[in-house]
Design a protein that fits this description.
Layout (H helix, E strand, L loop, with lengths): L3 H10 L7 H13 L9 H12 L5
Helix pairs in contact: 2-3
Organism: Aphis craccivora
InterPro entries: HATC_C_dom, RNaseH-like_sf
GO molecular function: protein dimerization activity
Length: 59
């Protein structure tokens, strides 16, 4: 194997999920983030917030 570390990374991060739980989790977070105080967020900014919230554990 030429790049074993790259292989390990791709195994961890490029796998196909077996269930729809991760996508359902994102929709759930979106519902929690949009409330009466944040009803004027643009879709673009809401996407940024959801992305950051979902990937916070990778930082």
């Amino acid at each position: 194997m030429i790049l074993p570390e790259l292989y390990k990374l791709q195994q961890k991060y490029l796998c196909i999920p077996a269930t729809s739980v991760p996508s359902e989790r994102v929709f759930s977070k979106a519902g929690l983030l949009t409330n009466d105080r944040r009803n004027r967020l643009s879709p673009k900014n809401l996407n940024y917030i959801i992305f950051l919230n979902s990937n916070l554990n990778l930082l």
